[in-house]
Amino acid sequence: MSFVRANQKFSRALTARAISATSVFDMFPKLATMLFALPSTRRVLDAGAGAAWCFPIEYKSYFGLTLIGNDIDADEMALNPALDERVVGDVCKSLNVGNGTVDLITSYSGVEHFPDNAAFLRNCHSALRPGGRWIGQFPSRYASFAILNRLVSEDLKQRLLKTLRPDAVDHIGFKAHYDRTQYSAFRKLAEEAGFVVEHWHPGYFHFYFGFFTPLYLLSLVSGLLRMAFGMRDFATYNLFVLRKCGPAEIVVFNRERHGGMERPTVAAAAALLPA
User: What pLDDT, on a 0 to 100 scale, did the predictor assign at position 264?
Assistant: First the structure.
């Protein structure tokens, strides 16, 4: 275990600050907070709410939010103190809220666990009011750890997690499907459901291999190359902001501005390298 911890510490030390600061895990709360601040955002539904909200609970009173949790696990949601309403059910079958009754839907590391993302997005579109938004971040189907996750048995996965990532076993040990979670497939699902893709932010790096520094360095180099060549479907993570067609009183994002790789990104990749 000391070997693993030593490698993790060294791997973190080698990670450029710019990589952490531009990760989907860092960008998601920032972009979501911008959406909370919109005057029209009042009812927020957290899909796959689980036992905790990933924002300070003070945000609810500060922004005047009503928070609805939706999860298939009632026991997990019962532990979540941030929720004003709890809805138990399969988000791929129904969100179990009225049509057009929600202003914003959030999904933090949940999409990869849903078996039918086409149905999930259709249900989100129905629940949102015109002009309402969905924001979510999730790993791509083609991320290296996602491929390994699908190849390794559940029993072996749990044993490896307990050994290599004991700090995260309670958060990353759930069954994952990665149903059409690569960029092109998810974008197509979103547009078929009736959404406009308002923003996309990719992440090309991860820390799953931090337990062995040489392997982690190899993953860093791979991420830089995929980013430099704009390989959208091979991004490690995706962060999408989707909008239901309708009046949008404030333009929050320029569509796919930098994250959309609409221009060459060799310079952007180079900017993440240590000085």
Answer: 38
Sheet with 237-244, strands from edge to edge, namely 85-88, 66-71, 43-47, 102-108, 128-139, 237-244, 195-203
Q: Which of 85, 167, 98, 93 is nearest to 129 (CA)?
A: 98
- Separation in Å, CA 87 to CA 32, 55, 274: 21, 19, 46
Domain range 2-270, CATH architecture: 3-Layer(aba) Sandwich (3.40)
Where do the structural domains in the chain lie, given as residue ranges? Answer: 2-270
What's the pLDDT score for residue 266? 53
Q: Which two tokens stand for residue 81?
A: 């103190």
For the entire predicted model, the pTM comes to 0.86
Residue 214 CB partners (closer than 8 Å, separation 6+)? none
Helices within 193-237 (DSSP H only): 213-228
